[in-house]
Structures are given as structure tokens and as C-alpha cells.
Description:
The chain has 368 residues and is an alpha/beta fold.
Amino acid sequence: MADDKPAKPRRFSRRKLLGILAAVPVIGGAGGAWASRRQPYYTGPVTDHFDGTRFFDPHGSPPKAFTDLLRWQFGGDERARWPESWPIEATDTPPPSVEGDAIRLSYVGHASVLLQTRGLNILFDPVWSERVSPVSFAGPRRVNKPGIAFEALPKIDLVLVSHGHYDHLDVETLSRLNAVHRPRVITPLGQDAIMASYDPAIAAEAFDWGDRIEIGNGMAVHLAPMRHWTARGIFDRNKALWAAFVIETPAGHIYHIGDTGYGDGHHFRQVKAKFGGFRLAILPIGAYEPRWFMRDQHMDPEEAVQVMIDAGARRALAHHWGTIQLTNEGIEAPREGLARALATRGMAPDLFRAIRPGEVWEIGAAEV
């Protein structure tokens, strides 16, 4: 006999609320109305990736809609439970600098990495805050402390911020860095306005895809396309630009991506064609489940290995995993998936490493 009892409505639980808040760094405007601004972050001429108001990727996909977010949160996709705390074994105390062509990489956590080479100390997407959210009292929270205590940082020369999502552009951390280290800050067009609106002392320099910026010691930074998007609130989607970074060095180039989908691989084949391959790539491997929602903007570990191959990188460091839960996969799933992807392709596991916060990877000057 058919059950004629009405279906129970899905409950709007605290877990679902936290799930939506966790999506703020991923979908931006779906949850961050209180942090939005109607005025543009950038004004300039129309280009092949800027329509006069908003940026776009000719080879990308538009961000998901709010209705897709609701489908994700209430449609039954399984969300793994992360531990409340996943302590790291030790924090790193970096040296004041690394001279010559040797490279020292220290994983701070999530998308934050310290790169030391040729006497320069470079931070990518630095986040020392406890949460990545428009508000300090709710939203995604780190499950381990930063792999380098803020007070243990060496003198920071350069900060590279890839885009405006809260897990990559942390204005509180940038303000702290400016107060203590006065680093040069390089970011895509429009992201400088976000920083300045929080702390006018942050003297960020904003650039477009294809720009090259000298940073000293025989090095330069190029901004390159990546398959992503950006927002801080519901009214500012893609009013600023997002970018990957290529660090040009005499011993070989370094390719950094903060967030990206894979798509058809166009951007990664193009960057190899332009720069001829890389000594090292720093690539995201997490925030990829469920695939129907995340595929266009976040790659999974297998796609990250494909990016390494497409871009012609001889080694790769994984990031964007093991610190802050934004999506459905388990805390260890990205590292486990990376190991499987490398094994499937017959690649040595030490060529693409997923180290934990506080751990270090040193690449000798002769390992070009």
C-alpha cells in the first residue's frame, strides 16, 4: 500500500547553514551580501576579457547560480565530516633568506605558501586568520594552525594575491603584513581596491593578464589567465580580475595557480607554449566535490596532474587541502587522490608532493 504521509520537509539545520557559509569563498556572492559593494573596483577600456564592467574568461565558464548552491546544500550530496582539529606536527621557522637558485617551499596551509629563492621571500595568497568568511564569528574555520607562526616569518619582500575569494584574499592578514613587513603586493586588476578599502596603507599594485613586472634579483612576475572567477559579495561578481602567476627566474620559471578548473586545458597548454615549461608548479588539489558543482571552477587531483603535464612542469607542490573545509570531500581525500593519479600515470610520488602545514620542501640549485 502506498504511503500517503506527506514528505518531511528538509530541515534548515545548523550544519546546512554552516555549509552555505562555507560556500562563500567558493561561490562568493551566494552568501556575502553584507560584504558587497555596488561601485566598480576597476574601470578601463574594453578588452578580450573585460566588457567595460565585468571581467570574463573567453575559455571559461560563468560561476554557478544561487539556485545551484541551494541544490548542492539541500539536494542530498554527501558531505564528509572533517575533524574539529587536525593538529600539525610542528611549525616551520624559515631562514632569513635562501640565496642562489635553490628553492625552499613552506606550506602555511590551505592556499598559503612561502617561497624563498634568490634572496627574495614571496608569499602566495596569505591567510593567517582563523576563518575565511565575510564575518569573524561564523563561516569556514581552519582545523590546524598556520604552518609558520606569523611572528616567525622572515622579512617578506613580495605578496602575490590571485583573486578576491575570502580563502585567498584575507584583508586582515594583508594589513598585518603591511604593518610589520611593508611588502610589495601584486594582484590582478581591481583587487587592489578591495585591499585599500580595508586598509589604505596596503599599497597594492594591480595588473592585467599578460603584464610583466620586475621584482629584482633577476626575477619578474607575469600574470596569466586561470579558469576561475572572483567576488566578495552579491553585487560585485567579476568586477575584479583573477590570475595565475609565472615567476621568471634565471634557473627556470615557477607557475602558481590559486584556484582553477581544468576545462579543456587551454590555459595550461598556452602557458607552456609561452614560457616553455616550468621548473616548478604550485597547484590546487582540493575543493572539488561535488563535481557537478565544482568542475568548472576547481580541479580534482587527477586534473591537477594533467595541468602539471600540460604546463610542462618538472615538479609540483599541492595546496588548497587539509586546512579549511569548503566542499564535500574528506580531509585526506585530495592527497589520496593525488597519490592514485600519479600511480596511474606511472609518475614518481615525489614529483608532485602534498605536504602538510608546517612541512618544507627544499629543491637544490642543481635540480633545475
